[in-house]
Amino acid sequence: MPIVPASPAMIAKAAALLRDGKLVAFPTETVYGLGGDATNDRAIANIFEAKGRPEFNPLIAHIADMHDLDALVISNETARRLVEQFWPGPLTLVLPKAKECPVSLLASAGLDTLAVRMPAHPVALDLLRAFGGPVAAPSANASGKLSPTSPQHVAESLNDKVDLILDGGQTIVGVESTVLDLTSPKATILRPGGVTQEQLESILGPVRLSVHDETAPKSPGMLSSHYAPHLPLRLNASSAADDEALLCFGPDTHVKGGAMRLNLSAKGDLKEAAANLFSMLRQLDQPPVHRSIFVHRSIAVMPIPRTGLGMAINDRLQRAAAPRILD
Ligand code: TXA
Ligand code: MG
User: Fold this and answer.
1) Which ligand is nearest to the CA of 92?
2) CA 315 from chain center: how many Å?
3) pLDDT digits (tens, 9 = 90+) for 151-185
4) pTM (two decimals)
5) Torsion of CA 194, 196, 200, 205, to 10 degrees
6) Which ligand is in closest contact with the Cα of 316?
7) Domains and CATH numbers, the chain
């Protein structure tokens, strides 16, 4: 599918495609999104089909205008404080749907809540403004696979299933937005992401992190095997075998082994590590057809601190390492 520069003309074209019910991949500060008109059932159905996504998993409505917040959801004081501090930015708020909410029922998977966010990326904001309404956008990858942080990742993953890919280069944050449930008095993090628990707590005081329950997912996207590379992943590795690739964090000269190595951040910077996470996992991961030419058969990952963005990084790594049917 065409990867095009995000020029004003191409953004206008992308907005026209969205109005026509088509799908457009666009950059956000976190990962690339697969966008469709959030009010168009058919466009939303196409998103689910393109991703091969279970239909109970609801989508985030992306907006560029604060006024849209009240059109879509019933806001509250907590939401307003967070929006003031973190929007545009990698924070998604789950709130009760507004009475006249125009978003397709399919997009919210029939829930009476809706996830909303304002992305901090000029191309995303220009596209949303040119389109003039909410855009539903999951990460632009096949369901359960690694999220895309470059337009090439989108093309590899979705190929002919997307009508246009707007090129905004590499994404900056690299992990998805934090999903925060504000539907009950106690704010709950459903998915750790680009805005850290510490940042949220500096505004709200103590914030809960939802306990992941496989049988009754509150955020239905929290399925165990997700972000799955082809190769098995071993976490908290203090050394690597000769048939393992090693994904490092921080100084790694003392760490032994590894047929091949990449370092998420040699200086131990979690922000840099988050930005590199998905693309480095992709580089180390080899689909079955290519396996014979690579020495390694699995990926070992050094420990990542569980603070700040490390929460989101560890969350994605744990999912990537979860048991799955090997292909
Ligand atoms: O950074 C991001 O959030 C990216 C970019 C493209 O904006 N989008 C993204 O979307 O990661 P997606 O669809 O891959 O993940 C959305 C997450 C899922 O875990 C989903 O279950 C949760 O948000 N979610 C959506 N609507 C929800 C709702 N009403 N209640 C609870 N969780 C919800
Ligand atoms: Mg996703």
Assistant:
1) 1
2) 12
3) 999 999 998 899 999 999 999 999 999 999 999 99
4) 0.88
5) 170
6) 2
7) 3-209 (3.90.870.10), 233-321 (no CATH)
